[in-house]
Amino acid sequence: MMDMEEQEVEPLISDVLVVTRSGTERRGREGIVSDISIPSSPEVHGRSKKILVPSDAESDLLSEDGEAETDHKISNTDTIIHMLKGNIGTGILAMPDAIKNSGLLVGNIGLVFMATICIHCMHILVNSSQELCKRTNLPFLTYSDVAETCFATSSSPRLRAFAPTARTVIDVFLCITQLGFCCVYFVFVSQNLEQIFNHYYGEINYHIYMAIILLPMLLLASIRNLKYLSPISMLANILQFIGLGIIFYYLFQDLPYTWERKKFASWGQLPLYFGTAIYAFEGIGVVLPLENQMKTPADMKGWNGVLNTSMIIVSCLYIAVGFFGYLKYGDTVTGSITLNLPVNEFLATLVKIMMSLAVFFSYSLQFYVPVNLLNLSIQRRISPQHHLIADYALRFSLVLLTFALAAAIPRLELFISLVGAASSSTLAIMAPPVIDTVTQGNTCSWPRALKNMVIFTLGFCGFITGSYVSIKNIIKYFDGEDEP
To answer: How far separated are the first and last CA of the chain, in Å rounded?
Structure first.
């Protein structure tokens, strides 16, 4: 059982039939549709090498050899639990800041609308995956597989040519998203530690705390076998859910009246709202792996299915934290609700330590995705005896990269909004309608195509405006302005 996405890696292309530009063929395990090979499946002719793609709240159950257990089916209840874990992460702590950028009324209505769109996109991805599995006789497909296969099986030669590009785009945005999470984690842990220690020991430069956690981050990132991260992930999940319960305890105390808070912020702040909200709702990566492991995959869909049930719970939690967090603290709310908790109370300090540890332990699992995707490309270009050195060099370089970005822009809300708008919007909103339209092909009705176009346009507008406003505010930060 796990709440990771199993991402089929690119070297598997060497195990399928590939038609090269010269017209020669390499015979592997699978057939081919026109000139583009269909992605391989781990259930075909043995087990294939995979990359485990963690969500913001990662898996804690792995097989002894470090690979995911593909033969162990899970119940509907287990799937709901994993869906909750896969969608509830650092983003939920930023929900009050999202409401601050939209207003109490507009923000919560917007969250309901955005949740509806994101859940619909998850259904689109599941339906497309099932259709493509029937079309290719493969047992299951991952997100990147679905993106590639929908183009590879198209009746249009022009669309078939885009199959490798589709996989690359999804993989690239997966890397950007995961590295973005890692940057957010650096800032989150450092800011919470700064608030705790500054209260007891006086003011210390923020970058000192970052430097302190750099060495432990490097050590965590050095763990190459996922089975050693399993207990760490379990501990992170426990700390996170206990901490969330204590946060609600603080939010429900001495609440002001709703009319004391603004109902609408401003049009200029809405792109920041979109980026922060979509960052939190980006749990689409865990849907297909969980559906692939269910005893009854058909129960994932339906109005009262596993997907709707779990995502409605997640959406209610997001709305509750956002509503009560902003109602409690108003415009003084920060990029993480933990930073608004009292610094002189033991329970509040304990929550900050617990959430910081949970996020710290999650870093290595988020980090696992870009390392493996980039490692594959690097190892194809160097001799085998240098693979281990290159692996560690890549790991340390990426940690230092996320450290440098976090140190340069120590504003949690700006990072979250930028990551959400730039990458999460692509995976959660823009990619699924494209996949659905291409999968349906000539049978796609005009209302369906129009609906997909509207969803894509919404995501694209959020991508452009959210990224622009976030980058503009980052530039303002470098210019010395205090407020974004």
So the answer is: 42
